[in-house]
Amino acid sequence: MEKLMISGGRPLQGTVTISGAKNSAIALIPAAILADSEVVLDNLPLLSDVAVYAEILEALGGQVSWDGQQMNINPSDIKSIPMPNGPVKKLRASYYMMGAMLGRFNEAVIGLPGGCNFEPRPIDQHIKGFEALGATVTNEHGAIHLHAKELRGAKIYLDVSSVGATINIMLAAAKAKGSTTIENAAKEPEIIDVATLLNSMGAVIKGAGTETIRIEGVSSLHGCRHSIIPDRIQAGTYMIAAAATRGNVLVDNVIPKHLEALNAKLIEMGVGIQEHDESIRVIGKDRYEHVDVKALVYPGFPTDLQSPMTSLLTQADGVSVLSDFIYSSRFKHVPELIRMGAKIRVEGRSAIVEGSALNAAKVKAADLRAGAALVIAGLTVSEGVTEITGVEFIDRGYDHLVTNLRQLGADVWRETE
Ligand SMILES: CC(=O)N[C@H]1[C@@H](OP(=O)(O)OP(=O)(O)OC[C@H]2O[C@@H](n3ccc(=O)[nH]c3=O)[C@H](O)[C@@H]2O)O[C@H](CO)[C@@H](O)[C@@H]1O
Ligand SMILES: C=C(OP(=O)(O)O)C(=O)O
């Protein structure tokens, strides 16, 4: 088991370049299953979730090569093989195998997904969408069985604007007969990225990024080349780390528009923010104001940055309240931050954070962003070494983390227990 060691207290300084978005990558790879020839994806992040997805496609007969950035996927020989267990259990986004395999073969057997379990994460809206398109869906011993004689377009109103359900319905509907409308669709940038890839493959999808998406089914999809958008959550994490350590960091290769909610909060706290076309400079200050944060669907403040933001708010004067309206109990970072001296209490779906100095401790990352929160906390501590276990969660979302932090001047290393 590996652990991450941090001897903190150094302001982060320099430039960090952000890689492609995890939540795009792990939807774009299964989308390639729908093509009849090679799909090339550029700017992929070097993450365990991406490696697992390559493994899944290869297990089905796909030809995949990946150099850590560019992935070539030839899906021609992919077969309709049931996957009730195995690698699909290792990540959350394996649910996209349902939409992609259903779209290509009119059938699929996919085990219920794994990934970060900070609270129950139902997939009822995905299933409602597949059923509306004409599929029969059953849950047999923890695996979802999907079958359709043919998929037909339908009008689907999502009860919650779910990222996963929106993308899964686009995947299943891209080759369905007739037109599909998704109402109350999620608007996250990753959805636009998936629609862009599918349209480059020959699909006809309009409205991605708005609450109404229209998909005209086509009979076949072809290969293409696509470059993935930058990871706004990874970028946001480095921005928060720069502020927390009172550093000065240029976060490069970002789409500033995707980070507006975070920028606004950082500015409200008193952090210096300079926006450029494809980069954002974060200039830390000695004192920060307390702020309240509400995690909401895009373009609101992202739930995936709620935990990292909790660590930053321990460094602000006064009392801040972080409420998560996407996941009501995403607070597994809180007990660990308390071990590091934070003054936080959880009430309902909110964490109430009183500014306080942190100390080094042995802590455990219980999920990906809880891990990011602990890294940020460790970077602010000026005496002692913070030891973080559960590194496998952090590796799901941050490529080259140690290298990047060291380039920014942090004293960070990995050790094997
Ligand atoms: C792989 C991926 O892209 N993961 C992201 C995706 O997760 P994911 O796609 O799983 O998240 P959703 O957008 O689906 O979830 C949003 C909310 O809807 C609820 N819900 C969702 C689906 C459903 O069928 N029924 C239902 O009730 C969830 O419990 C949650 O409260 O969006 C989340 C919200 O931005 C992010 O935290 C995750 O990083
Ligand atoms: C929750 C996350 O990912 P996933 O949905 O893949 O578990 C995340 O990226 O913070």
TrEMBL record:
Top-level taxon in the UniProt lineage: Bacteria
Record keyword Cell cycle present: yes
Pfam families in UniProt: EPSP_synthase (PF00275)
Subcellular location: Cytoplasm
Catalytic residues (UniProt): C116 (proton donor)
Keywords from the UniProt entry: Cell cycle, Cell division, Cell shape, Cell wall biogenesis/degradation, Cytoplasm, Peptidoglycan synthesis, Pyruvate, Transferase
Main localization (coarse): cytoplasm
UniProt: phosphoenolpyruvate binding residues: K22, N23
Reaction(s) the record says it catalyses: phosphoenolpyruvate + UDP-N-acetyl-alpha-D-glucosamine = UDP-N-acetyl-3-O-(1-carboxyvinyl)-alpha-D-glucosamine + phosphate
Job of this protein: Cell wall formation. Adds enolpyruvyl to UDP-N-acetylglucosamine.
Residues reported in the UniProt entry to bind UDP-N-acetyl-alpha-D-glucosamine: R92, R121, P122, I123, D124, Q125, D304, I326
Enzyme Commission number, as recorded: 2.5.1.7
Record PTM 2-(S-cysteinyl)pyruvic acid O-phosphothioketal, positions in chain: C116
The protein, known as: UDP-N-acetylglucosamine 1-carboxyvinyltransferase
Organism: Paenibacillus algicola
SUPFAM superfamilies: EPT/RTPC-like
Any one GO molecular-function label of the UniProt entry: UDP-N-acetylglucosamine 1-carboxyvinyltransferase activity
